[in-house]
């Protein structure tokens, strides 16, 4: 058990670090605190901004709360802020502004009530900070820092959010059942914060999510999608995914993922597809070179979702999943459309899922130039991500086999590089365009031109670049076969 002196020391160090972090924002905090105090109002930095300041990870988005009503906040900010706008938040008591590099949201104390059918609150302005904090989602997000007139800072923590942060625990200010009844999205936010912060949920919170998971159906697909993207783009996405699956949340919003937990029997052995997919996600993340790549991460998580529907027990104890990449790509499209993902994003993820097995069809290093061209052309602008996905998909514990797969894929990359030196693989096009095809064959615009164009493209992929004479001769020969 950690001694009280150690805990007190950790508290002191975290608060001292937060003070240093917030001190770097004096050009924003000091004038703001002065303006509000001059009008007889209090101002508090609050929520995730305080939590992140304590953790030493505060960004440029700052959240405040105040006893001043929205029209007063607008009046105070007008002329001081670089930009002031209403994104619909004013009806909820929120004024949004920009000052320098910082985005500010200042919200009047709230004491909302919920109809518990949707997640729409009946907006009621409150009179106390404590009343505002107790209605927030988790205690680690219910800490505040008072911004005094002289710029001094006072830490306010009536719900012991700092203790929860020190313990790495997500708990609700009030009973979790009441909190989730008010806003079921908070259950998904719990999984998201587990992924972002590396925390665990309190036992009573986990129990409440299990009991109430179906309430997430009240939330719109767009809001669910936003939380899922924040979760999968976080530092510890696997922890968040596990929480979703263990509590039943994933079965409501992303059922294809827990469905990968296929039963393994003594007669027909196969990898645990669910755990394999989480390993692939982890190995894909290890290859990222900058910001989280959501397309790659989603493709890694979902690359095998077609396996449950294609599983077949084979004679001799084997298991097959024939064409699971085809089925999986269709499933990706269906789920992402249901979650209202943009079409281009959905197609990118689906195409990676569809292509992730293509590499294994090339045999032991015996690729033709044609196969390499088709691989590059089909992947197109996703080629770099496909490289990473294929490498991440190697989770075998057999070191020899893993080394052989890596060597084989390295050879493929070398072949791609060699062909790129000889020709522009990023722009594989037929050697004759549509106009040249119509002129040569005496055709009017129509389906036959498209068919001829496709033939020439396939020929180009098979043979590489051709001279115009070679392309014309090949087209005439093909056209003759179409007329017989």
From TrEMBL:
Gene Ontology biological process terms, A to Z: tRNA processing
Name the UniProt record assigns to this protein: CCA tRNA nucleotidyltransferase
Cofactor: Mg(2+)
Domain of life: Bacteria
UniProt EC number: 2.7.7.72
CDD domains, per the entry: HDc, NT_ClassII-CCAase
Record GO terms (molecular function): CCA tRNA nucleotidyltransferase activity; metal ion binding; nucleotide binding; tRNA binding
Coiled-coil stretches: 402-429
Lineage: Bacteria, Bacillati, Actinomycetota, Actinomycetes, Mycobacteriales
UniProt keyword annotations, A-Z: Coiled coil, Magnesium, Metal-binding, Nucleotide-binding, Nucleotidyltransferase, Transferase, tRNA processing
Domain HD intervals: 273-419
Pfam families assigned: HD, PolyA_pol, PolyA_pol_RNAbd
């Amino acid at each position: 058990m950690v001694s009280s002196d150690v805990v007190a020391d950790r508290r002191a160090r975290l608060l001292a670090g937060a003070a240093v972090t917030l001190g770097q924002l004096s050009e924003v905090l000091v004038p703001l605190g002065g303006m509000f105090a001059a009008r007889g109002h209090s101002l508090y930095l609050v929520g995730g901004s305080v939590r992140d300041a304590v953790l030493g990870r505060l960004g440029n988005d700052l959240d405040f709360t105040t006893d001043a009503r929205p029209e007063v906040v607008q009046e105070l900010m007008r002329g001081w802020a670089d930009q002031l706008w209403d994104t619909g938040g004013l009806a909820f008591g929120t004024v949004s502004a920009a000052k320098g590099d910082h985005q500010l949201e200042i919200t009047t104390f709230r004491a909302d009530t919920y109809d518990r059918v949707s997640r729409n609150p009946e907006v009621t302005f409150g009179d106390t900070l404590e009343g505002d904090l107790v209605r927030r989602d988790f205690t680690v997000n219910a800490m505040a820092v008072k911004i005094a007139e002289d710029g001094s800072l006072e830490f306010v923590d009536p719900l012991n959010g700092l203790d929860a942060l020190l313990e790495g625990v997500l708990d609700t200010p009030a009973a979790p059942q009441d909190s989730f009844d008010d806003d079921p999205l908070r259950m998904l936010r719990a999984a998201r914060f587990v992924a972002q912060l590396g925390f665990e949920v309190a036992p009573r919170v986990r129990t409440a999510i299990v009991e109430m998971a179906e309430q997430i159906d009240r939330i719109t697909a767009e809001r669910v999608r936003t939380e899922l993207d924040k979760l999968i783009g976080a530092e510890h996405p696997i922890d968040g995914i596990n929480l979703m699956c263990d509590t039943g949340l994933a079965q409501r919003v992303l059922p294809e993922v827990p469905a990968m937990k296929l039963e393994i029997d003594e007669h027909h052995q196969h990898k645990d597809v669910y755990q394999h997919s989480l390993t692939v996600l982890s190995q894909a993340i290890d290859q990222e070179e900058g910001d989280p790549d959501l397309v790659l991460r989603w493709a890694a998580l979902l690359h095998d979702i077609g396996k449950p529907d294609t599983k077949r027990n084979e004679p001799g104890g084997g298991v097959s999943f024939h064409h699971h990449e085809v089925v999986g790509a269709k499933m990706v499209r269906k789920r992402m459309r249901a979650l209202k993902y943009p079409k281009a994003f959905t197609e990118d993820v689906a195409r990676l899922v569809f292509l992730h097995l293509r590499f294994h069809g090339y045999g032991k290093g015996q690729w033709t130039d044609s196969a390499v061209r088709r691989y590059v052309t089909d992947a197109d602008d996703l080629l770099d991500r496909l490289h990473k996905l294929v490498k991440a998909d190697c989770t075998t514990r057999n070191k020899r086999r893993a080394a052989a797969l890596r060597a084989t894929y390295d050879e493929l990359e070398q072949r791609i590089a060699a062909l790129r030196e000889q020709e522009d693989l990023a722009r594989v096009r037929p050697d004759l365009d549509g106009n040249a095809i119509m002129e040569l064959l005496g055709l009017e615009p129509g389906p036959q031109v498209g068919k001829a164009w496709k033939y020439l493209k396939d020929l180009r992929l098979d043979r590489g670049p051709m001279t115009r004479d070679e392309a014309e001769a090949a087209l005439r020969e093909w056209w003759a076969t179409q007329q017989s």
